[in-house]
Amino acid sequence: MWVLCIGALVIICITHWVYRWKNPRCNGKLPPGSMGFPLLGETLQFFSPNTSSDIPPFIKKRMKRYGPIFKTNLVGRPVVVSTDPDLNYFIFQQEGHLFQSWYPDTFTEIFGRQNVGSLHGFMYKYLKNMVLNLFGPESLKKMVPQIEQAATRRLQQWSNQNSVELKEATASMIFDLTAKKLISYDQNNSSENLRQNFVAFIQGLISFPLDIPGTAYHKCLQGRKRAMNMLKNLLQERRENTKKQQSDFFDFVLEELQKEGTILTEAIALDLMFVLLFASFETTSLAITLAVKFLSDHPLVLSQLREEHESIVKQRENPDSGLTWKEYKSMTFTFQFISETVRLANIVPGIFRRALRDIQFKDYTIPAGWAVMVCPPAVHLNPAKYEDPLAFNPSRWKGMESNGASKHFMAFGGGMRFCVGTDFTKVQMAVFLHCLVTKYRWDAIRGGNILRTPGLQFPNGFHVQIMENETRKDGKDI
Ligand code: HEM
User: Fewest Cβ atoms closer than 10 Å to its Cβ: which of 128, 416, 436, 473?
Assistant: First the structure.
C-alpha cells in the first residue's frame, strides 16, 4: 500500500514537473515556442551541425512556425530568441538596466567567472577602458607597421610551401602578434606552446557542460587550466624582473596592481588576458579565411580590391615604404568588402543576455531571470533589408560606411557591449589583404567548405597555394 502511495506521489510530482517545464510560469503572455524535452530542452537541435550559409535551420524553422520572437530551452535555461530588429535594439540599449550580459555556464567556466563579459557596472567600465586604450585608434596607428611586417613575413614563408592551411596559418599569425602586444610572448623563445591550449575552444564554448574526458567542454577546461598557469607564471616572472619602461599590457597591469586603492585584482587581469588572447585570434582568423575564400570565388571582387590596393602603392613616392594610417583609412572598397564578409560569416551566431525583471515587449512578457538570445544571422540574412541576402556583394555597402552597429548590422554586437576589438580586426584584415593582393596570387587547393555548430568552422580547413607575383621592371604583373 505504502509503495503504491509513494509510487503515485512520485508520478504526480514528475507529471507536474514536466507540465511546468513545458508551461513555465509567467506574469503575462510568453512568446510562442516549445521548451523541448525535460532537462535537454531543444539543446541537441540547436547544436545540430549544418552546412548552410543561410539563417541556421533551427532558427529558420521556428521563425516560420512562431514568428520573429519565440521561446525555447537551451542547456537547461529557458531562453527567448529574438530575430526582431526592434527587440534586438531594445535589448542592446537596455544593457545594465532591463538586461544584463549573461552567457551560458560553459562560457563562464572557460573564460573565468570574472571575465569582462560577466562583469558589470564600475569594474566593467574600468576594464573596457583598459582594453580600449590597448586596441584604440592611437595604439592601432602604432601597430600598423608591426601588422604589415607580420603579414609580409608570413606570406613570404607560405609562398615557399606547396600548400598552406589558411585558417590555422592566419590564427598563428594573429596569436603571435596579440601575444607579443599583450605579454611580449614569443613562441620561439618559450618551451611551452601557449596557443596549443586554445585549440578546440570554439566547439567547447557553447556545448553541453559535461566535464568528462573526451568531451569538447573537458578539453576546453584543461586548456584553460594550462594557459592560466602559463599566464600566472609569466606575470610572476615579470614581477620579479620589472622593466624600467612600460612596454606591454603586462607592465601596465603590474603598474595598476601596485596603485593604492586599485580595483584591479590579479585574477581579473589574468581572466582579461585570457579572453583577449582567445577573442583576437579565433574570430579574426575565421574572418580572414572566409574573406580569401570569397575572393577565390569572386574574381571580379578580387580585381576591384586589387585595384584599390595597387593604386595606394602607385601613389606613393617610394613603393616600398610601409602602409600609413592615412592609406589604411582610404581603403573604401576594402571596408565594404570586410562588412560584407562579416555579414555573411556570422561568426557570432548568438548574443546572450539575462532579463533583470519581467519585461513587456509588444504582446509578450519576458520573465525575470530568463535568458534572451539575439540572433545576428537572422538580421544579416533578412531579404527585407538585404536584397538577395545570400549573394556576396560588397558594393551593397556603398555609401553606408559606418564603423558602428545598427539595427540591421550586428556582427560586432551593439550598444554598450559593442566589440572592443572591432577596429583591431579591421586593421588586421585590411593590412593582410593589402599585402596579399598587391604581392601574391593564390590557387584554392582543397577544403574551404563551412560547417556551423552553430559557430562557424572550416572542418577541412582551407588549403591554398600562394605564389609571389613576378613583376616586370616597370612594376606591372607578368
Ligand atoms: C571578426 C572578429 C570579431 C567578431 C565577429 C567579434 C564579435 C563580437 C561580438 C558580437 C561581441 C558582443 C558580445 C556581447 O554583446 O555579448 C563582442 C564582444 C567582445 N569582443 Fe569581439 N569580435 C571580433 C574580434 C575581437 C577581437 C580581435 C577582440 C580582442 C581584441 C575582441 C574582444 C572582445 C571583447 C573583450 C568583447 C566583450 C566586450 C564587452 O563585454 O563589452 N573581439 N565581439
Answer: 473
Nearest CA to ligand 1 atom 6: 412
Give the C-alpha separation, 122 to 78, whole Å.
29
| Euclidean distance between CA atoms 241 and 235, whole angstroms | 10
Cβ neighbors of 320 (< 8 A, separation 6 or more) are none
Ligand 1 contact, 456 CB (< 6 A): no
**Nearest atom within ligand 1 for CA of residue 347:** 5
In angstroms, rounded to a whole number, what is the distance separating the alpha carbons of residues 173 and 212? 32
Determine whether the shortest distance from the Cβ of 425 to ligand 1 is under 6 A: yes
What is the rounded CA–CA span in Å between residue 447 and residue 464?
Answer: 9
Q: In this model, does residue 214 exceed pLDDT 90? A: no
pLDDT of 197 > 60? The answer is: yes
Could you give the 3-state DSSP secondary structure of residue 74? strand
- Give the per-residue pLDDT at 207: 66
pTM above 0.85, yes or no: yes
**Structural domain count of the chain:** 1
Q: Determine, yes or no, domain membership for 442.
A: yes
Is 284's C-beta closer than 6 angstroms to any atom of ligand 1?
yes
273 lines ligand 1 (CB under 6 A): no
Tell me the backbone φ, ψ of residue 445, rounded to 5 degrees. -105, -50
- 379 C-beta closer than 6 A to ligand 1: no
What tens digit of pLDDT does each residue of 302-328 get?
A: 999 999 999 999 999 888 889 999 999
> Is 26 labelled a binding residue?
no
Across residues 165-183, what is the average pLDDT?
A: 92
Residue 474 predicted with pLDDT over 70: no
Range of the domain at 46: 42-468
**Cβ-based neighbour number of residue 50 at 10 Å:** 14
Residue-wise pLDDT tens digits, 8-67: 888 998 888 888 888 899 899 999 999 999 988 999 899 899 999 999 999 999 999 999
